[in-house]
Amino acid sequence: QVELVESGGGLVQAGDSLRLTCVGSGFTPDVYAIAWFRQAPGLEREGLSCISRSDDAGESKTYYADSVKGRFTASRDIRKNTAYLQIDRVKPEDAGIYYCASEFVGVCASWYTPEAMDYWGKGTQVTVSS
Asked: Which of 35, 95, 100, 110 is a Cys-bridge partner for 22, taking CB atoms 3.0 to 4.6 Å apart?
């Protein structure tokens, strides 16, 4: 059974940094792509980033929403089946519930679309104080 568990959320001050973690289980690491989404109150779930599975050369691709480029850094540790989302210079608009999700195709196709994901974690709440 595929399971994704996010952690690392909490109360953070604007300007600080935060690292979110997503631990996967029940599937072979580096088969799925891993994406991060955020849902703020009253808004739709927004795609933030996606890391594809590695190709034959061992290279993966990382995609970011324009709104977070330069401040968000996604990474993954295949050995631990864990993905990370580093958020630097946190802004009030970063507040929301952060979800990680997996895409079975593995190539981040339409990654910014929640419907493209196959499995979801339950989310971790990020609250920003200014």
From this structure: 100
